[in-house]
Amino acid sequence: MNLIRASFIPHSLFVCFVAAVSCAQQPANPSPAASSASSTSAPAKKDSAGSERVVLKVGNMQVTQGEFESRINDIEPQGGDPDEKGATEKDRKRLGDDYASVLMLSQQAVANHLESSPEVGRQLAVARMQVLSDAEFASLMQQAQPTFEEVSQYYSAHLADYDQVHIRRLFIWKQKDKGGPALSREAAKERAERVCQAYAAGTGAQKLADVLNKSGDGMLDVEPVMFPRGELKRHMETVAFGLKEGEWGEVEDTSASLLLIQLVKRDRQQIGEVSSYIEKDLQAKKMQALLDDLKKKASIWMDERYFGTAVAPVPDAQRQASNPPSELHKSANMGDSNK
């Protein structure tokens, strides 16, 4: 998303920015203490001398390189890093022009006492609440970060969940695209049996796959396909995890095709492969517990005559809803997206 030019700056962005810069107005020659405070508001991207260099002035307000680079990312997080190696002079100039325009308009708004108007004051209050809410959420997320020991304990207690099978699938078509006669259930089983016997006798999977493809009789996986537990259909998974290595099992028999699978190998995902997923799951659960505890301590009350008594939908239902959730709803349920 490119930063919108000054004449098309959204009102919500303008109001949020006024909330920030109205507190940051400073004289042309800021005191050392003020400079020190502003320089620590965001991590420096270059050496301190470069970050403290004044690169922009609007009226009597000065903006250092460090302030500009951190604030422009707050306003336009997807707009790119103005100090990134690949950033062009034209890109940086555009961002500077836009930033100066927003700063100019915010100063004019303060001069016109627009922050005192009920509507702008309401939006500033909402913006402040949102910033504080996001800050507390980030703090809670940090507290909910699971330790390596917790991840290891969870993995050890759920080993079966990380089993996986490497299977070879054999499809026999009962109805051929080339218009040949349809195979009966018995004929399809007989054709599949011949393929399995040929494979057991040493005929390579590639050769058998080529024959099936050429004849139009079916399809065979030349290389086995890996499926972790939970990714196969329930019936197919039951068959796959119940086979011994090298065995074939029938998993599907429809009017169109017959499907057999061979268990080539069964193993288990190592903790290093799944630790990131476990961390997210544990963090989401711990985060939910922290939020539930906060809600209890906050003594939240809602007027049932106004809000009703219906139970809120589960997170999955929220994500699948056709109507997108409101910003307030997304903020209140931010933890659900990490589950």
In short:
The protein is 51% helix and 13% strand.
How would you characterize this protein structure?
With 339 residues, the chain is α+β, with helices and mostly antiparallel strands. The protein has three domains: 6-131, no CATH class; 143-150 and 272-338, no CATH class; 162-268, Chitinase A, domain 3. The protein is built from 14 helices and seven strands. It has helices at 11-21, 32-39, 48-51, 65-75, 89-111, 118-143, 148-157, 185-200, 205-215, 234-242, 271-298, 304-307, 315-320, 327-332, and strands at 54-58, 61-64, 163-173, 218-220, 225-228, 248-253, 257-268. The strands form two sheets. Strands 3, 4, 5, 6 and 7 form a five-stranded antiparallel beta sheet that branches. Strands 1-2 form a two-stranded antiparallel ribbon. β1 (54-58) and β2 form a beta hairpin. α1 packs across α5 (89-111). Residues 1-16, 21-46 and 314-339 have low confidence and may be disordered.
Rg: 31 Å
- Note the gap between the termini: 27 Å
| Poorly predicted parts | 1-16, 21-46, 314-339
Average pLDDT over all residues? 80
β content, as a range? 5-15%
Structural class: alpha+beta
- Relative helix content: 40-55%
Shape: elongated
Tell me the count of domains. Answer: 3
Number of distinct beta strands: 7
List SSEs in N-to-C order: HHHEEHHHHEHHEEHEEHHHH
Annotation field: number of helices: 14
For the biggest sheet, the summary is: 5 strands, antiparallel
